[in-house]
Design brief:
With about 400 residues, the protein is of the alpha/beta class. It is built from eleven helices and 18 strands. The structure holds flavin-adenine dinucleotide (FAD). Flavin-adenine dinucleotide binds next to helix 1, strand 2, strand 9, strand 12 and strand 15.
């Protein structure tokens, strides 16, 4: 452990986008921050790697512009111009992607690069980083007072005024703090992703496929260059489990669809095939703030039930947490009274819209013909189509 220091103002558990961004923002305000992760970096995270324009805007606004521009230049971030939607009856249409308010475009970035970029920013801002797996929070006088960690050889207690749980979908901190509160199956999904070279791609265009066997869910092809793509599919967990299904077989079926198969060139092969769950932000009744602790990103559960996208809201939740924690540290009050403001912000700025997206996803599942209608009849100048693509 860094100079055997076992006491910090803030301990952030998990160095994905949510944790690293929270750590960067708090360290940037001169707080004493330790950022822990169980893995060495750079590390992969199973993901579609698509970055909405708003996510990039958040990072630019936080001062990461130079690093992001360099990543665009060296090809670690691939810019997007449009999205192709393919409906259950096979209608397809390409829509231009709407830029964010600040004029940023969406992109695709392998998480092995993207997450390391934000972590570098946290280190640059002054956060200390260490590799250690957090087992559980230390709770004293009904308040989180730190975390118990292990790094293989030793087990330690690290104390902090506030702990940020950013340890992803399988969060140990969320499990310990929320007790029996859980995401139910209709607010969860399971998805598989792989990388592939030698596939014919539409330049700078992400592709979404909605078809009968995969509803409620979709398959995707997200380009990483002119020749390489992130390919995958996901389905809501309650429907996935309603009959025996196998994600790898579903992926093979997708690649054999008449629209896809002819695009696979000699040498095409899937690499790094892996699956991972998603927790939607549409689940009601969950707690995000605790005395001395907050849950951000997937540990809290902010993924869109419509698109499966979670990176933007992970960053946003980190930003909200950093604001509330900074004020609480200045005030010297880390009680639930003060930290509950984070939960209020989350409900207003993140969770409310995600509940509406769950309803929309249910409607599309019940009436998949709506997607056919949408794709067949609404061109990219239509206000409804514009509203839809701006949400992605
Ligand atoms: C297949 C799939 C495809 C997806 N596609 C997209 C997409 O294209 N676009 C999009 O926006 N979102 C997508 N998502 C969602 C997105 O991946 C998540 O919302 C995002 O990664 C959340 O970031 P996070 O920082 O909260 O968690 P994570 O990125 O999961 O990071 C958590 C970190 O915590 C660490 N950790 C875990 N446990 C411990 C522990 N006990 N102690 C210490 N460290 C620990 C992990 O090593 C990890 O580094 C997808 C998800 C899946 C599963």
């Amino acid at each position: 452990m860094n100079n055997n220091k076992l006491n910090y103002e803030v301990v952030v558990v998990g160095s994905g986008p949510a944790g690293a961004f929270t750590a960067a923002l708090l360290a940037g305000k001169n707080h004493d921050v330790l950022l822990l992760d169980k893995d060495d970096f750079p590390r992969d995270k199973i993901c579609g790697d698509a970055l909405p324009a708003k996510a990039l805007e958040l990072l630019y606004t936080a001062g990461m512009g130079e690093a992001i521009d360099a990543a665009f230049k060296n090809g670690n971030i691939y810019p997007l111009k449009s999205m192709r939607l393919v409906s259950p009856k096979g209608h397809q249409r390409s829509y231009p992607l709407i830029k964010s308010a600040g004029g940023y475009s969406a992109a695709v970035a392998p998480r092995i690069f993207f997450d390391a970029l934000i972590r570098e920013e946290a280190i640059r801002a002054g956060a200390k980083v260490h590799r250690a797996a957090v087992e559980k929070p230390i709770i004293e006088n009904n308040m989180v007072a730190g975390v118990k960690v292990s790094n293989g050889q030793e087990s330690l207690e690290i104390r902090a005024k506030v702990v940020i749980g950013a340890d992803g979908v399988a969060s140990n901190l969320a499990r310990a703090l929320r007790g029996r509160e859980r995401h139910t199956r209709c607010h969860r999904a399971i998805a598989i992703r792989a990388y592939a070279d030698n596939i014919e791609l539409y330049p700078q265009e992400v592709e979404f496929y909605i078809y009968d066997h995969i509803l409620p869910g979709y398959a995707w092809i997200f380009p990483l260059s002119d020749n390489r793509a992130n390919i995958g599919l996901g389905m809501r967990l309650d429907h996935f489990r309603s009959e025996p299904r196998n994600l790898k077989k579903m992926l093979d079926l997708f690649l054999n669809l008449p629209l896809i198969k002819p695009r696979l060139k000699p040498g095409f092969k899937l690499e790094n095939i892996a699956s991972w769950p998603l927790n939607f932000g549409s689940q009601k009744g969950l707690q995000y703030a605790f005395p001395g602790a907050l849950l951000v990103g997937d540990a809290g559960g902010f993924i869109s039930p419509l698109t499966g996208g979670g990176i933007n809201r992970s960053l946003l939740s980190g930003q909200l947490a950093a604001e509330v924690v900074h004020q609480a540290l200045v005030k010297g009050d880390l009680s639930l009274n003060t930290l509950a403001q984070y939960e209020m912000f989350c409900r207003k700025k993140l969770l409310k819209s995600l509940r509406k997206k769950h309803t929309l996803a249910n409607t599309l599942f019940l009436f998949p013909g709506l997607v056919d209608l949408f794709v067949h009849h609404l061109n990219d100048h239509n206000p409804l189509a514009k509203a839809f693509t701006s949400k992605l």
